[in-house]
Each structure stands twice: as structure tokens, then as C-alpha cells.
Amino acid sequence: MKQKIILTTFFLTILSLSVFVSATMTSKQNGNYEVSIGLSKGWNIVAGTALEQGISSDSEIKLSDIKAMWYYSPVLKKYYQIYPNNELDDLSVEEGRQLDEDVILTSAMWIYTDKAGTLKYDTLEDYPLLENRQLFGGYNFMTITPDMDGNSINEIKGECNIIESYGFDTSSQKWVSLSQNNKLDTNSAGMGVLLKISNDCTLRVVEPSANPPGLPTNNPSGGCTDSDGGIDLSVKGTLTLITGDRTTTASDNCAYDNTPDDPTSVRYIENETCSAGNNCYIQELSCNYGGEDYSQSFACPNGCKNGACI
User: Fold this and answer.
1) Exposed (0-12), middle (13-18) or buried (19+): which is 183, by Cβ within 10 Å?
2) Cross-strand bridge partners of residue 23
3) Which of 11, 71, 85, 136 is the most exposed place for a label (fewest CB within 10 A)?
4) Percent composition of the chain: helix, strand, coil (DSSP 3-state, to 5)
5) Are the C-beta atoms of residues 65 and 41 closer than 8 Å to each other?
6) What is the pLDDT of residues 160-200, one digit of tens each?
7) 281 or 288, which is more confident
8) pLDDT exceeds 90 at position 109
9) Average pLDDT rounded to a whole number, residues 39-51
10) Residue 202, beta-bridge partner list
11) Does residue 84 have a cis peptide bond before it, meaning omega lies within 30 degrees of 0?
């Protein structure tokens, strides 16, 4: 079954930029995408392809209008020109082993065009399911695809710890910091964003907390709220406790177990971070717990940073 996504603006809901284009991104039976996307004159970031094979005969922007296309390898931390000279053809044996064609063609790429207009092309590669889409420590050019629709970057980050996120404003030809909480939608499918990741990881939709809010009887003399909605180990939450005329706030914290052989040992805060394999825990605050401290500790197998499991 074909799925057609109509795009009417470029990053309007994400970046609030006044750059308008029209585009479609249609999935084909073989899993490839057929892309029709409006480009501005200059540099643009779009879903990757090999132009000589991928560009459509009825594309408004012709191959002759495109001056360059570049791929950034998050594994080797360097740029490779894809067009007009395909530098991937001249890779050394060592480099070739570290570059996966599936990863290359499903990444976003830089493209430079001499004129504004619509570019139509085939991605030439089927995209893996979101939970199988890998990112690597450092910078990654990620293609936004229709299966991300309705979710924010934070909601599809899975096990990834995203340090920085950027979009590219084609009108000013400058990077713009990208909010990770704004929703991705059909206005951004087919475009590319730049993410800086702390560690190799895969994406997936992060399920919301399955725990309901605490009962008001947890604190009958006042009230209790938790900014992350309860027990959510992937989000740093702040608990606000109101008792009479007194308001107390505290946040989730990373910790490590000083004496792991003793299950009753005190876990000490380690400057908001602890690494995987270091008896790493999170002190999760929630109104659900009640009691005096409203806290409980959970292990963070991949480490903990800034009050959230990685």
C-alpha cells in the first residue's frame, strides 16, 4: 500500500522559519521513497540518493543544475563528495569496511543547486524500521521520514542521548538550533536535521510512562506534582510538594552505588552523571511513592546523565 505525505512548509512547525516549499514523499512497494521536494538556491539538506540513478526525468531541477552533493560519515567523521565526483568509489579497503551503503543512502545529505525549484528523485534504498535505524556517537545527518510523524525528536530518541540538534535555514543559509520537544509532522518529512549524539545507539519511539498520577491521599495536607508525569527514567523530572504554606521542589538525580555488595547501601550523587558499568543508578522522584522522600532508585544499564537514564 502506498503512503503519500503532502508537505506544504519547510520546518514551519519545528523551527518557525518563514521558508515555504511544497513537497511529497511517497513510499514505494520496494520500500524506497519517491521524493518531490522544493529546494532553495544554495545549500539544502534532504533525504539522500545517488543523483545519476535517482533523479527523475520529469524533475524541474535537472542534474545539470546541481553543483554538488556531499555525505557526512558519522563513523569516519568526515565528508565524502557524492556528486559530481563520487569519492566513495575511491575508498581504501579500511574505509570501505567502515561504510555501509544502507546507512549512506538512508542518511540526509547536503545538496547545492544553482536555482530554486522542485527536485524529484528516488531514494534508491528502503529505510529500516525506526527501531533498527542506527546513529553513531558524534554528528549525524538524519532524514525525517513519515514514520516519525506526530512525535518530537525526544519521543523518537530511543536509547540515544542527543546533545545538540540543528536545522538549516535555506533562506539565510545558516544553522538554527532545533527544539527537541516540538512535534515532527508531514511538513518536515524528507528534510534532514543534524543531531550530535553522545554514543552509538538506535532510534525508537519512547513510550510514555505507564504509571498513573498519584492519588491525592499521598499528601492530604497539600499537593504533589511531577513534571515528567510519574516514573519516566528517560526524562529528568522535577517534583513539587506543597505542604500547608510550604513548597518544596527536588529533581531526579544520577547516582552510583558505593557498596554494590550491600543492597541497603546508600547511593551517592556523582555530579549528575555516572557511566555504564559503574553501578549506575537514577534516583527517581514520583508522587506515586509517597512517604517522606518520594524517591526510589533504579539501575541505568547504559549510564545516567543530567538526571535521566541514557
Assistant:
1) middle
2) 7, 37
3) 85
4) 15, 40, 45
5) no
6) 889 899 999 999 999 998 888 888 877 778 889 999 998 89
7) 281
8) yes
9) 95
10) 134
11) yes
pLDDT for the residue numbered 263? 47
Side chain identity, residue 100: D
Helix (H, G, I), strand (E, B) or coil at 226: strand
Strands 280-285 and 273-274: unpaired
| Count of residues making up the chain | 310
Query: 284: which residues sit within 8 A by CB, 6+ positions away?
Result: 231, 233, 237, 252, 295, 296, 297, 298
Other C-beta atoms lying within 10 Å of the C-beta of residue 201: 21
DSSP string, 46-90: EE---HHHHB-TT-SS-GGGEEEEEEEETTTTEEEEEESS-GGGG
Q: Which residues contact residue 158 at a Cβ distance below 8 angstroms, ignoring those fewer than 6 apart?
A: 130, 131, 201, 202, 203, 204, 205, 206
Place 6 in a pLDDT band, splitting at 50, 70 and 90: very low
Indicate the domain borders of the chain: 4-202, 216-309
- pLDDT tens for 219-267 read 445 677 888 877 788 888 888 877 766 778 888 888 877 665 554 454 5
Angstrom distance (rounded) from CA 73 to CA 79: 6
- Residue pair 63/56 in contact (Cβ under 8 Å)? The answer is no
C-alpha cell at 11: 520546518
